[in-house]
Write a structure and sequence with these properties.
The chain has 508 residues and is α+β, with helices and mostly antiparallel strands. Helices cover 14% and strands 31% of the residues. Strands 4, 6, 7, 10, 11, 12 and 13 form a seven-stranded antiparallel beta sheet that branches.
Amino acid sequence: MKKLIITLFLLVSSNYLSNAQEFAMGLSKTDFDTSKIIYKKIPVTRGGISGLPQSYSLKNFAPNVGYQGQLGSCTSWSAAYCALTICQRIETGSVIGPFDPVNLHSRLKALNSENPCDNGNYVEQAASLLMSNGCPEMVYQQSCSYVPANYEYDFKLSGHENLSINTYDFKYVLSQEKSPIVISANYFDNCWGNSANLVSGVWNGYCNGSGFSENRHAMVIIGYDDYKAGGAFLVQNSWGSNWGDNGYFWIRYNDVSKVVYAASQFKTNLNQSDDDFNNEIEIIKEKNPDQIYRFYNDCSLTTYITLTKNVGQNWVTRGWYAISGGSYIDLPIGDRDSNKIYWMATANNNGQYIDWVDNVNGTNLCFDRVNAHTIYDNSQSNCPNMANFYENVPDSRNNMVVTTLTCPNIKTRGEGTVMSSEQLFTEIIPGNEIEWDGKSSLIDAYSSRIIQPNKMNNGDVNYELYYVLENKVNLFNGNASELMKLKALKFTTEKNAQAYLSSISKQK
């Protein structure tokens, strides 16, 4: 089975040189407002940080250290090969995996309409793809090749969350939630990557700032020890067992913030029992834990979503979730305890806010226009702004709820229709995208991105795209009515169409 998938955030790529041996690695900064990133709120244990175990390790669940070679695929090696393998081995109680990093890398490249052998991928995009579409087990180490973005596999990631860079949060997630942490680290020419700076496997904290490069690297924290060099985290790398301390190294608690600028918990499902919920709330009789709410952004501006759902006895409003223009984001809603979902969106157009709100039938709820926020029960004491949120009541039998956002008229800002369509899908398969109804989003069958129309000088809308019929790539140029008659898979570029044909031929 195959599903459509997209998201965005943290790009990983490029090359690294240490001890005369070249390693692939890297990470580039995000293109959206990072101040709006939502970080996981970690509960405080009795006794605080002293209430946590003095050491903890997931190393027994981790695969042997791998070697990514010269391909800039550290994101996929960290996300699939290491982190997903740890999660699945804990969840299944078996020695499963490891999972195929090159397969994930190739699908992420397809998702971004790039060559499968290009360097670099986004950490959160990788996590979202593992949640929605999973990853196959690694039979043998393959070379990069065309694999459509929406292929689906049985083994999936339970979830992921952004973490603040601090010792307590990392130790809590490792020891109490048995979850590996994928970190994004800056690279300096003479820093943690240089084996000369590793003393008994512990990075000495030295960095030669004059040798700074733009390269960044993704790795996985799999344990910690309060007595190791005064307290340190154990990191698994993907440069083979000849690097560092058999492929690992330790980074002291106080040194983490020197190089690590982003961290993501890859969540392990521990099958914890649910709490008893308030009987006065409209309880969902049959939950769908895999249900997601997908927001497409047809607006050229980066758009931010804030979502309200009932969890336990609280209505929780949480934002912001960033969606770049022409992309989408998947928000998990399967954990809610009331059928109703509320949301609103905003974008900043040269200093002027554009809002997606329902001023006709909406529900007035709190949010914070400027900052990332978590607001409980519409609390007036924590209510910088209010707006009329849209309401949706998803059917739990469907795995996915889809809303497509288009830019509203700046003068009216929220008055009138701002959604081009809203549909419910149990799944989206490339073969089912042959026919287009003229209302829903038009999807590239290879990259899974939205195909945007061209606006003509006379105000009409025209489509220029490529399609595949009888294993041949053809150009289409026409209006929506003509496109609705075309029964074929459609693609944004000729390159994507050829890549799709290549992926199909490799499977025969």
